[in-house]
Amino acid sequence: MSIKIRAGAESVEMERDFSLRRRLVDFVLLTKPRVMTLVLFTGIAAIVVEGSRLSDPASMLLVVLGLYLTGGSANAFNQYFEVDVDSRMTRTSRKRPLPDGRLRPAHALLFAIAIGLAGVALFTLAFNLLAGVLSLATIIFYSFIYTLLLKPKTHLNIVIGGAAGAMAPVIAWAAVSGSVAATPLLMALIVFLWTPPHFWALALSFREDYEKSGLPMLPVVKGVDSTLRQMLVYSIALAVASVLPALTGAQAIYLAPAVALGAMFIWKTSQAARSFSRDSSWRVFRFSLSYLFLLFAIMMADSIVSRGL
Questions:
Q1: What is the pTM of this model?
Q2: Which residue range is the domain that position 119 belongs to?
Q3: pLDDT digit string, tens, across residues 13-29
Q4: Which of 147, 179, 211 is a domain's end point?
Q5: What is the pLDDT of residues 173-198, one digit of tens each?
Q6: How many CA atoms lie within 13 A of 248 on its CB side?
């Protein structure tokens, strides 16, 4: 009998541990960790290019933590406000914890508020007021102005929302330097121009799903051809913007790879425009991920080489 009781108690404990892990994973999913990987990488790039904290890894980690807390807060607010939208889309209804019923909306809201306040406090107290204000403004803009007011009303929602997603280099630079300079603004411009063709390529690949969402996404409102033309326009603008950091100091090894990557982005987008298919738009989406990582990695390498490190 005692053996059965112990076995039953161990089973209950294992179930409790699994439930706790599952709950923690669901809270992490509220922050959109895949999206945050890109956000953090662009922020880290700004820290490396600015250079003053390279000998202080603890400080760098605090900036990365602050970016995750504030960016994750904005994403959690976004999922809280869009639970009905996510529940209508096959791509999100079973993957996100709110439409799937794995988390209560009230818990998600409290989580979004808590980590947002923690991130803003970290930037303000550990670094400076400028970084705190910028991070708070980003949360407010993405969570409320974009998600609640603009996204449901305009087919240019992704363009507008890209402004918030592009802020990581500016916030990180402000945290480590106490100011904002041309270089992080150019980095933000690159991310801003990259966002529309990146996301529209995804939206084209899942166009039927976005039709169910009720949101005025460009492929749904304006159609495939118009979306592809806009993607090409933004990819050309992105290629031009990507060479501008060479004017502010990124010259050692940056310029040629930046031009090559920009040309490849234009070619991928033009190929999709000439012969559209779900596969062609998906190829643009996948390349866009590699593009941003490679471009910012080269920017960091250029900065390190320029300093002779």
A1: 0.91
A2: 12-179
A3: 545 555 888 899 999 99
A4: 179
A5: 999 999 999 999 999 999 999 999 99
A6: 15
